[in-house]
Design brief:
Blueprint: H1 119-127, H2 140-164, H3 173-187, H4 191-195, H5 199-218, H6 295-300
Helix pairs in contact: 1-2, 2-3, 2-5
Length: 319
């Protein structure tokens, strides 16, 4: 479970997914200046990743993803910027993106596939008590340093909450509930405690628990007799021809599936935590029951009306 803070990490980044190296990117809309004390509530997180506390609430965030995180000019971002500098598209009179409705058309698709999992509003409204970096510039540097740390912790919370909601993981529910409680407690600590947290150690410990949960899901895949089917963990599958592939119960943790042809592939009960689906062709694929699948993964891919998704996830509008 999460360990007590040790040394301050050298440079906290936004790569919060266990088993992957996919960089984070700012989302499309940075909300507005209206804030609400409801974001500071301390109710217990419910099993299942769809808890409101684990979803981005941009209206209660000070556009931290558009300022704190760096990004480089690329196919994902029309221009680059260093960490701590506001994006040129961030409006000066509030915390909204000036081109939110045209991000893909204007060359900023990377902004549309990022999710802070609720870290932005927590840093803005709880860690810093609603004091934004424009009116309180003395808070800016620490706020921008805390945000990537909080983002990683919230991403872990999201995965643990999902694992806890799975009946097949009942043998792990005690450990998962403890992990959820301890992680949530850590995210409510002050800025100094968060910056002193050994996030890599927390990730390693939680990841081992998530790996066990994923294995329990994979073992239920039909046709595998309760064993552990093919392992593609961390595999380089960029551009791979996997049309109609039987990937039921496969481990695709951290796999590079960029531009892979997954048309009609069967990904039921696959563990896809951290898998890079950028430009992957998921038309007609079956992702029902895929564990640790996130909305940003779907948003980065291509699909159609025939792509079957878990009920809690939405079909991206650009499909």
């Amino acid at each position: 479970m999460p360990r007590k803070p040790r040394s301050k990490p050298g440079a906290a980044n936004s790569r919060g997914t266990p088993g992957t190296e996919n960089p984070g990117a700012p989302p499309g809309d940075a909300g507005n200046t209206a804030v609400s004390p409801r974001t500071a509530s301390r109710g217990a997180l419910a099993p299942g990743w769809d808890d409101p506390a684990l979803r981005a609430d941009c209206a209660n965030c000070f556009a931290l993803c558009c300022v704190a995180l760096p990004f480089a000019a690329s196919a994902d971002f029309a221009a680059g910027k260093p960490a701590g500098r506001p994006c040129a598209n961030l409006r000066r009179d509030d915390f909204r993106c000036g081109i939110h409705t045209e991000l893909r058309e204007r060359g900023w698709p990377g902004c549309t596939v990022f999710d802070c999992h609720g870290a932005g509003q927590k840093v803005s409204q709880i860690t810093f008590g609603g004091r934004d970096w424009r009116q309180h510039p003395g808070n800016a540097r620490r706020m921008f340093e805390v945000f990537p740390v909080m983002r990683q912790l919230h991403e872990l919370l999201r995965y643990v909450a999902e694992a806890l909601a799975l009946p097949v993981t009942r043998t792990l529910h005690g450990d998962l509930r403890r992990a959820l409680r301890e992680l949530d407690d850590l995210t409510h600590r002050d800025a100094e405690t968060l910056l002193a947290t050994d996030v890599a150690a927390v990730r390693r410990e939680i990841n081992s628990l998530l790996l066990r949960a994923g294995d329990l899901v994979r073992a239920q895949a039909p046709g595998h007799g309760g064993g552990h089917p093919r392992n593609h963990r961390g595999a380089d599958l960029v551009g791979a021809r996997l049309r109609n592939a039987d990937l039921r119960g496969a481990s695709l943790r951290g796999a590079l599936l960029i531009a892979a042809d997954l048309r009609g592939a069967d990904l039921r009960s696959a563990d896809v935590i951290g898998a890079d689906f950028r430009d992957a062709d998921l038309r007609g694929a079956d992702l029902t029951g895929a564990v640790f699948l996130t909305q940003p993964q779907l948003d980065a891919a291509r699909g159609d009306a025939g792509t079957r998704l878990p009920p809690a996830l939405r079909r991206p509008p650009h499909w």
